[in-house]
Amino acid sequence: MSQLADALAALDEEEVAKLVREKIDAGVDAMSILNECRSGMDIVGERYKSGEYFLSELVVSGEIFKECMKVIEPHLKAGKQADTLAKMVLGTVKGDIHNIGKDIVNVLLGAAGFEVYDLGVDVEPRIFVEKLIETEAPILGMSGLLTPAFESMKETVKAVEAAGLRDKVRIIVGGGVVTELVGKYVGADRFTSDGLKGVEICKEFAKELK
Prior knowledge:
By secondary structure, the chain is of the alpha/beta class. It is built from nine helices and five strands; from the N terminus they run H-H-H-H-E-H-E-H-E-H-E-H-E-H.
């Protein structure tokens, strides 16, 4: 494990910022730096799964990663682009304005190599569909923490079907109140109440789509 990955895994914000800046100034390839940061995030994920880290640590690691990306991204654009696992449209459904879980997942997906189009909160079904058509993203992620969100998720799945996209798009729904029964009710391919598990599911989708 590199010093940078180790520092990120340890949630040492100052050390991570210093190392990223030093590597950029030294002309280290931006993709290489990004991959080190991703390795650090992978370790955070492992520690979360084992119970060593909790949701608060996931949030902190996500914030550190976002700060790293602010420094790294301009150099990625100038050189080799980051490898993308898959495009994905993400949002909290109509009638729900909770965004913390979605935002965490967004960062984790970015760290894993997804190109995420985050539509924000209170997103209407047609907006999800329009973005899927515009980006040709093969994965749709919907979040919701309120029980009325289930109807919005179902409406969105129906809108995806009506647009003729259902056989081209994998759909995952998530949120603290989302269960297997909810997943079946709304017509999603997969469900999760855990952000990290959601990323793993999306990785599975990406493999299936290749």
